[in-house]
Amino acid sequence: MQYSWNDIEQHIISCTHCPLSQTRRQPVMGRGNYHADIMLIAEAPGGQEDQQGMPFVGRSGEILDDLLRDSGLTREEIYITNILKCHPPGNRDPKEEEKEACFPYLKYETFLLKPRMIVCLGRVAAQRIISPDFKITRQHGSWIYRKNCALTATYHPSAILRDPSKYEDARQDFCEIAKKRAEYS
Ligand code: URA
Description:
The structure is a single chain. This protein is α/β, with parallel strands linked by helices. It has 9 helices and 6 strands. A 6-stranded mixed sheet has the order 1-3-2-4-6-5, with helices on both faces. Helix 1 runs antiparallel to helix 5. The radius of gyration is 15 Å and the shape is globular. Bound molecules: uracil.
């Protein structure tokens, strides 16, 4: 059976597959353009996202918007989601069992979207999606290819908030992403 976007959202809303379902205010489904060719995958909703039910609405969302603007992209033309759909208390790293419990939702999102490019934001997403030994400091901006999809990773906006000197590297990565996208279309 093939799920629709609405089916996935309903499953996420009623999900109790891990203990985060008891501590979350609300789950945060991916958002954006269902016909996007670029899918951004981050780690997990933060406190603001948990309150508002949307990805990247807090301070890290402002950084993400700056990166998109500086590379000529907009939120309206991309799709943004997280490995975990529920906020881990205290913004701790997601646990292995939480990532495993949530992974089917990301698979369904990817299956429906069929993105041509996947951009992992930060170490947690890069290690789950690209390679378990991915080193974000050394390997950000590098590309691998799977089937018809190009995958890369850059710094998570929260890492840039903690260390603003990372912004320029992330900006350059986003400019490459926009350039590659233009070459593809
Ligand atoms: N950090 C994330 O990884 N995802 C969000 O949606 C917000 C902050």
